[in-house]
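Section 3.1: Structural characterization of target chains.
Under the original work plan, the team committed to producing a structural model for every single-chain target entering the pipeline before any wet-lab resources were allocated. The record below documents one such target. The sequence was received from the expression subgroup and is listed exactly as submitted; it comprises 112 residues.
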Amino acid sequence: MPSYQELIAQKNALDKRIEEARSTEAKEALATVKQLIATFGFTSQQVFPWKPEEKKKVEARYYDPESGATWTGRGKPPKWIEGKDRSQYEIKSTPTVDFNAPRDEKNPFPVQ
């Protein structure tokens, strides 16, 4: 049975061979990709299609009953709430049931 030191030496030699093989194959793959891009005239957009992330819409936190206007609580406060107690304008969130949540025999419909 090989000793610990011999096994470590074998592992290091194998790691080096693995890295050399990866490097060689990566260079060959890159050359193939470059050749295909040149042959077919692909653009960078075709090779790397990119879609901007859709911004998540922020839910309104405040509601003006007089005008029906809402405000998320971000940015400069609108005139109808400026300097007033915001708690009277808060939109009370309604609980939602998560139907994908794991079921509990005692509470079959967990509310978030």
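The mean pLDDT is 88.
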